[in-house]
């Protein structure tokens, strides 16, 4: 069961260096052929590149464990990115910080309550300007999935 006291839990800031090679690897892994990601000297990141922040967000930087969702009943429900100007480009150093913004429940269509938890991660450039925000929504079902016989 999700812990409603997790709302407001904040991870410690962590750094993410945006590297040209990593942008290229990510673009290829996602099937992109866009030369803006593959060939540019200082390519901008593809919109979902910021997902790779999870490779950098370790230990006290990740507040998600405070939510305490039951992983047997948990799902990744949604991922949303908002950019407040051009996407970051290679050579940018981002300071990132995540916090649990809300936990709420809804009645499921098949009966049973669904619990949603939302984590917001802010990405700031070297000047402190907010360049992007990621919103991760996880959901926990009321019952574990039925076991197959």
Report how far apart the termini are: 26 Å
- Helix content range of the residues, please? under 10%
What is the count of structural domains? 1
Order of strands in the sheet with most strands: 1-3-4-5-2
By secondary-structure content and strand pairing, the structural class works out as mainly beta
**CATH class designation:** Alpha Beta
Query: Largest beta sheet, briefly?
Result: 5 strands, antiparallel
Question: Can you tell me the CATH topology?
Answer: Thiol Ester Dehydrase, Chain A
Kindly estimate the percentage of residues that lie in beta strands according to DSSP: 25-35%
Over the alpha carbons, how many angstroms does the gyration radius reach? 18 Å
Strand and helix order: EHHEEEE
What is the CATH architecture descriptor?
Answer: Roll
Residue windows where pLDDT falls under 50 for at least 5 positions: none
Task: Please report the number of helical segments.
Answer: 2
Principal-axis shape: globular
Average residue pLDDT: 91
CATH superfamily, please? Hotdog Thioesterase
Oligomerization state: single chain
The beta-strand count equals 5
Organism: Sphaerimonospora thailandensis
InterPro entries: FAS1-like_DH_region (IPR039569), HotDog_dom_sf (IPR029069)
Protein name: FAS1-like dehydratase domain-containing protein
Domain FAS1-like dehydratase: 6-133
């Amino acid at each position: 069961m999700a812990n409603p006291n997790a709302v407001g839990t904040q991870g410690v800031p962590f750094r993410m260096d945006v590297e040209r090679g990593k942008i290229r690897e990510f673009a290829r892994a996602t099937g992109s052929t866009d030369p803006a990601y593959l060939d540019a000297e200082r390519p901008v990141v593809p919109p979902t590149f910021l997902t790779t922040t999870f490779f950098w967000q370790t230990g006290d930087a990740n507040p998600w464990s405070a939510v305490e969702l039951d992983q047997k009943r948990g799902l990744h429900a949604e991922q949303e990115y908002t950019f407040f100007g051009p996407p970051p480009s290679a050579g940018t150093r981002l300071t990132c910080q995540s916090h649990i913004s809300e936990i709420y429940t809804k009645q499921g269509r098949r009966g049973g309550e669904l619990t949603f938890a939302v984590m917001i991660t802010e990405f700031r450039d070297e000047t402190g300007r907010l360049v992007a925000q990621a919103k991760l929504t996880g959901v926990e079902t009321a019952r574990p999935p039925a076991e197959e016989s």
